[in-house]
Amino acid sequence: MPRSTPADQLLIGAHTSAAGGAHNALLEGKSIGATTIQLFTANQKQWKGKPLTEEGIELFKKTLIETGLREIMSHASYLINLGSPKEENQIKSKRAFCEEVERCCALGISYMNFHPGAALDSPREECLDKIIEGMLVAQDLLEGEETRLLLETTAGQGSTIGWTFEELAYIIEGTKDKLPVGVCIDTCHIFAAGYDIRTEKGCRETLAAFDKIIGLKHLYAFHLNDSMKEFGSKRDRHAPLGEGEIGIECFKFLMTSELTRELPKYLETPGGCPLWDKEISMLREYARGK
Q: How many domains is the chain partitioned into structurally?
Protein backbone atom coordinates (compact mmCIF):
# COMPACT_ATOMS: atom_id res chain seq x y z
CA MET A 1 0.00 0.00 0.00
CA PRO A 2 1.52 3.37 -0.99
CA ARG A 3 2.34 5.89 1.73
CA SER A 4 -0.12 8.38 0.22
CA THR A 5 -3.13 6.13 0.90
CA PRO A 6 -6.22 8.25 1.68
CA ALA A 7 -7.50 7.98 5.23
CA ASP A 8 -10.73 6.25 4.22
CA GLN A 9 -8.73 3.48 2.53
CA LEU A 10 -6.34 2.75 5.38
CA LEU A 11 -6.77 -0.75 6.80
CA ILE A 12 -8.71 -0.32 10.05
CA GLY A 13 -11.16 -2.80 11.51
CA ALA A 14 -12.07 -4.90 14.52
CA HIS A 15 -12.51 -8.45 15.72
CA THR A 16 -15.98 -9.19 14.35
CA SER A 17 -18.29 -12.14 14.89
CA ALA A 18 -18.23 -15.22 12.66
CA ALA A 19 -21.37 -16.65 14.26
CA GLY A 20 -23.38 -18.42 11.57
CA GLY A 21 -20.42 -18.55 9.18
CA ALA A 22 -17.07 -16.85 8.60
CA HIS A 23 -18.60 -14.61 5.91
CA ASN A 24 -20.73 -12.92 8.58
CA ALA A 25 -17.60 -11.45 10.16
CA LEU A 26 -16.93 -9.68 6.87
CA LEU A 27 -20.48 -8.34 6.69
CA GLU A 28 -20.30 -7.07 10.27
CA GLY A 29 -17.00 -5.39 9.46
CA LYS A 30 -18.52 -3.65 6.44
CA SER A 31 -21.42 -2.42 8.61
CA ILE A 32 -19.07 -0.51 10.93
CA GLY A 33 -17.00 1.09 8.18
CA ALA A 34 -14.07 -1.32 8.46
CA THR A 35 -11.68 -1.99 5.61
CA THR A 36 -10.25 -5.11 7.28
CA ILE A 37 -11.28 -7.44 10.11
CA GLN A 38 -10.02 -10.11 12.48
CA LEU A 39 -12.11 -13.22 13.16
CA PHE A 40 -12.09 -16.67 14.70
CA THR A 41 -12.29 -19.35 12.02
CA ALA A 42 -13.44 -21.86 14.66
CA ASN A 43 -14.52 -21.94 18.31
CA GLN A 44 -11.49 -20.58 20.19
CA LYS A 45 -12.40 -22.49 23.35
CA GLN A 46 -12.41 -25.95 21.78
CA TRP A 47 -9.49 -28.08 20.66
CA LYS A 48 -11.19 -29.46 17.58
CA GLY A 49 -12.46 -26.87 15.11
CA LYS A 50 -15.47 -27.48 12.94
CA PRO A 51 -14.22 -28.30 9.41
CA LEU A 52 -14.92 -25.73 6.72
CA THR A 53 -17.27 -26.74 3.92
CA GLU A 54 -16.70 -25.98 0.26
CA GLU A 55 -19.87 -23.91 0.32
CA GLY A 56 -18.61 -21.94 3.32
CA ILE A 57 -15.26 -21.29 1.68
CA GLU A 58 -16.89 -20.11 -1.55
CA LEU A 59 -19.32 -17.86 0.35
CA PHE A 60 -16.46 -16.31 2.35
CA LYS A 61 -14.45 -15.56 -0.80
CA LYS A 62 -17.53 -14.18 -2.59
CA THR A 63 -18.36 -11.93 0.38
CA LEU A 64 -14.75 -10.80 0.61
CA ILE A 65 -14.92 -9.54 -2.97
CA GLU A 66 -18.33 -7.91 -2.43
CA THR A 67 -17.29 -6.07 0.73
CA GLY A 68 -13.88 -5.02 -0.58
CA LEU A 69 -12.22 -5.85 2.75
CA ARG A 70 -8.53 -6.76 2.60
CA GLU A 71 -5.74 -8.32 4.66
CA ILE A 72 -8.04 -10.36 6.86
CA MET A 73 -6.56 -11.70 10.09
CA SER A 74 -7.48 -14.85 11.97
CA HIS A 75 -6.92 -15.18 15.72
CA ALA A 76 -5.93 -18.73 16.63
CA SER A 77 -7.38 -20.60 19.59
CA TYR A 78 -6.47 -19.43 23.09
CA LEU A 79 -5.96 -23.08 24.04
CA ILE A 80 -2.86 -23.47 21.87
CA ASN A 81 0.41 -23.55 23.80
CA LEU A 82 3.20 -24.69 21.50
CA GLY A 83 5.69 -24.24 24.35
CA SER A 84 3.90 -26.48 26.84
CA PRO A 85 6.17 -28.82 28.84
CA LYS A 86 3.38 -31.40 28.84
CA GLU A 87 3.56 -33.78 25.88
CA GLU A 88 -0.20 -34.29 25.61
CA ASN A 89 -0.82 -30.56 25.47
CA GLN A 90 1.97 -30.13 22.94
CA ILE A 91 0.40 -32.73 20.66
CA LYS A 92 -3.03 -31.09 20.93
CA SER A 93 -1.52 -27.64 20.37
CA LYS A 94 0.39 -28.66 17.26
CA ARG A 95 -2.69 -30.33 15.81
CA ALA A 96 -4.90 -27.30 16.52
CA PHE A 97 -2.20 -24.97 15.16
CA CYS A 98 -2.00 -26.91 11.89
CA GLU A 99 -5.79 -27.07 11.58
CA GLU A 100 -5.94 -23.28 11.98
CA VAL A 101 -3.26 -22.86 9.31
CA GLU A 102 -5.25 -25.10 6.97
CA ARG A 103 -8.45 -23.09 7.53
CA CYS A 104 -6.61 -19.80 6.94
CA CYS A 105 -5.05 -21.06 3.73
CA ALA A 106 -8.38 -22.41 2.48
CA LEU A 107 -10.07 -19.05 3.07
CA GLY A 108 -7.17 -17.03 1.65
CA ILE A 109 -6.62 -15.22 4.96
CA SER A 110 -3.57 -12.95 5.04
CA TYR A 111 -2.50 -13.26 8.68
CA MET A 112 -2.83 -15.93 11.36
CA ASN A 113 -2.27 -14.24 14.71
CA PHE A 114 -1.45 -16.37 17.76
CA HIS A 115 -0.09 -16.13 21.29
CA PRO A 116 3.39 -17.70 21.40
CA GLY A 117 2.75 -19.81 24.49
CA ALA A 118 3.58 -20.18 28.17
CA ALA A 119 6.47 -21.90 29.94
CA LEU A 120 4.37 -23.03 32.92
CA ASP A 121 6.85 -24.88 35.16
CA SER A 122 9.61 -25.23 32.54
CA PRO A 123 12.59 -22.90 31.84
CA ARG A 124 11.73 -20.05 29.45
CA GLU A 125 14.62 -20.98 27.12
CA GLU A 126 13.23 -24.48 26.78
CA CYS A 127 9.76 -23.10 26.10
CA LEU A 128 11.08 -20.80 23.36
CA ASP A 129 12.69 -23.74 21.57
CA LYS A 130 9.48 -25.78 21.84
CA ILE A 131 7.51 -22.88 20.30
CA ILE A 132 9.89 -22.79 17.34
CA GLU A 133 9.62 -26.56 16.96
CA GLY A 134 5.82 -26.34 17.13
CA MET A 135 5.61 -23.60 14.52
CA LEU A 136 7.79 -25.53 12.11
CA VAL A 137 5.29 -28.39 11.92
CA ALA A 138 3.25 -26.08 9.65
CA GLN A 139 6.11 -25.51 7.20
CA ASP A 140 4.74 -27.76 4.44
CA LEU A 141 1.18 -26.47 4.90
CA LEU A 142 2.31 -22.87 4.26
CA GLU A 143 4.41 -23.63 1.20
CA GLY A 144 3.14 -21.45 -1.64
CA GLU A 145 0.23 -20.08 0.41
CA GLU A 146 -0.76 -16.46 1.15
CA THR A 147 -1.05 -16.79 4.93
CA ARG A 148 1.63 -15.34 7.22
CA LEU A 149 2.03 -16.33 10.89
CA LEU A 150 2.04 -13.37 13.28
CA LEU A 151 3.34 -13.67 16.83
CA GLU A 152 1.26 -11.47 19.12
CA THR A 153 3.04 -9.43 21.78
CA THR A 154 1.84 -10.50 25.23
CA ALA A 155 1.29 -8.61 28.49
CA GLY A 156 3.69 -10.73 30.57
CA GLN A 157 1.25 -12.29 33.01
CA GLY A 158 2.40 -15.52 34.62
CA SER A 159 4.83 -17.51 32.52
CA THR A 160 3.64 -16.25 29.13
CA ILE A 161 6.24 -15.91 26.41
CA GLY A 162 6.47 -12.93 24.05
CA TRP A 163 6.26 -9.94 26.37
CA THR A 164 9.79 -8.83 25.54
CA PHE A 165 11.03 -8.00 22.07
CA GLU A 166 14.03 -10.23 22.75
CA GLU A 167 11.84 -13.33 23.11
CA LEU A 168 9.97 -12.56 19.90
CA ALA A 169 13.27 -11.94 18.11
CA TYR A 170 14.52 -15.36 19.23
CA ILE A 171 11.44 -17.09 17.81
CA ILE A 172 11.61 -15.16 14.54
CA GLU A 173 15.30 -15.92 14.14
CA GLY A 174 14.53 -19.63 14.53
CA THR A 175 11.69 -19.65 11.99
CA LYS A 176 12.08 -16.84 9.44
CA ASP A 177 14.08 -18.87 6.94
CA LYS A 178 11.47 -21.65 6.90
CA LEU A 179 8.15 -19.90 7.51
CA PRO A 180 6.39 -16.66 6.55
CA VAL A 181 6.43 -15.03 9.98
CA GLY A 182 6.07 -11.62 11.62
CA VAL A 183 4.74 -9.73 14.64
CA CYS A 184 1.43 -8.14 15.62
CA ILE A 185 1.86 -5.51 18.34
CA ASP A 186 -1.01 -5.28 20.82
CA THR A 187 -0.86 -1.79 22.32
CA CYS A 188 -2.47 -2.82 25.62
CA HIS A 189 -0.13 -5.79 25.95
CA ILE A 190 3.15 -3.97 25.34
CA PHE A 191 2.09 -1.16 27.68
CA ALA A 192 1.30 -3.69 30.42
CA ALA A 193 4.59 -5.42 29.67
CA GLY A 194 6.58 -2.24 30.33
CA TYR A 195 6.90 -0.41 26.99
CA ASP A 196 5.75 3.17 27.61
CA ILE A 197 3.71 4.32 24.61
CA ARG A 198 1.75 7.13 26.27
CA THR A 199 3.49 9.87 24.27
CA GLU A 200 4.85 10.34 20.76
CA LYS A 201 8.35 10.23 22.22
CA GLY A 202 7.57 6.96 23.98
CA CYS A 203 6.06 5.47 20.81
CA ARG A 204 9.10 6.41 18.75
CA GLU A 205 11.47 4.99 21.37
CA THR A 206 9.47 1.76 21.53
CA LEU A 207 9.50 1.36 17.75
CA ALA A 208 13.23 2.14 17.69
CA ALA A 209 13.78 -0.64 20.23
CA PHE A 210 11.61 -2.98 18.15
CA ASP A 211 13.64 -2.13 15.06
CA LYS A 212 16.95 -2.71 16.83
CA ILE A 213 15.94 -6.03 18.43
CA ILE A 214 13.51 -7.54 15.91
CA GLY A 215 13.49 -5.29 12.83
CA LEU A 216 10.56 -3.19 11.65
CA LYS A 217 10.42 -5.28 8.49
CA HIS A 218 8.89 -7.99 10.69
CA LEU A 219 6.08 -5.72 11.99
CA TYR A 220 2.92 -6.43 10.03
CA ALA A 221 -0.07 -5.38 12.14
CA PHE A 222 -1.46 -3.83 15.32
CA HIS A 223 -4.16 -4.71 17.79
CA LEU A 224 -5.41 -1.31 19.00
CA ASN A 225 -6.51 -1.36 22.64
CA ASP A 226 -6.18 1.06 25.52
CA SER A 227 -5.35 -0.44 28.93
CA MET A 228 -7.52 -0.54 32.05
CA LYS A 229 -4.44 -1.38 34.12
CA GLU A 230 -1.43 0.75 34.87
CA PHE A 231 1.92 0.83 33.08
CA GLY A 232 3.99 -2.31 33.64
CA SER A 233 1.12 -4.11 35.42
CA LYS A 234 1.63 -7.36 33.47
CA ARG A 235 -2.17 -7.53 33.29
CA ASP A 236 -4.18 -7.78 30.07
CA ARG A 237 -7.34 -5.68 30.43
CA HIS A 238 -8.53 -3.78 27.35
CA ALA A 239 -10.20 -0.37 27.47
CA PRO A 240 -11.77 1.88 24.80
CA LEU A 241 -9.28 4.09 22.99
CA GLY A 242 -8.40 7.17 25.04
CA GLU A 243 -10.29 5.93 28.10
CA GLY A 244 -7.49 3.92 29.69
CA GLU A 245 -3.99 4.35 31.07
CA ILE A 246 -2.37 4.70 27.63
CA GLY A 247 -4.39 7.70 26.48
CA ILE A 248 -5.18 9.00 23.02
CA GLU A 249 -1.79 10.40 21.96
CA CYS A 250 -0.48 6.92 21.19
CA PHE A 251 -3.30 6.18 18.75
CA LYS A 252 -2.97 9.55 17.04
CA PHE A 253 0.71 8.78 16.53
CA LEU A 254 0.04 5.32 15.09
CA MET A 255 -2.40 6.81 12.56
CA THR A 256 -0.01 9.52 11.37
CA SER A 257 3.54 8.19 11.74
CA GLU A 258 5.36 7.20 8.57
CA LEU A 259 6.39 4.04 10.43
CA THR A 260 2.88 2.77 11.23
CA ARG A 261 0.18 4.64 9.28
CA GLU A 262 -0.10 2.07 6.51
CA LEU A 263 -0.07 -1.06 8.67
CA PRO A 264 -3.40 -2.85 9.24
CA LYS A 265 -4.98 -2.19 12.64
CA TYR A 266 -7.60 -4.27 14.40
CA LEU A 267 -9.66 -3.06 17.37
CA GLU A 268 -10.34 -5.43 20.25
CA THR A 269 -11.77 -2.79 22.56
CA PRO A 270 -14.78 -3.67 24.75
CA GLY A 271 -18.11 -2.39 23.54
CA GLY A 272 -18.64 -4.16 20.24
CA CYS A 273 -19.92 -2.67 17.00
CA PRO A 274 -21.38 0.61 18.35
CA LEU A 275 -18.00 1.52 19.85
CA TRP A 276 -15.95 0.21 16.93
CA ASP A 277 -17.98 2.28 14.46
CA LYS A 278 -17.04 5.41 16.44
CA GLU A 279 -13.41 4.39 16.98
CA ILE A 280 -12.84 3.59 13.31
CA SER A 281 -14.21 7.01 12.35
CA MET A 282 -12.05 8.64 15.02
CA LEU A 283 -8.90 6.89 13.80
CA ARG A 284 -9.59 7.99 10.22
CA GLU A 285 -9.96 11.58 11.42
CA TYR A 286 -6.56 11.32 13.11
CA ALA A 287 -5.11 10.00 9.83
CA ARG A 288 -6.50 13.10 8.13
CA GLY A 289 -4.64 15.23 10.65
CA LYS A 290 -7.73 16.35 12.52
A: 1
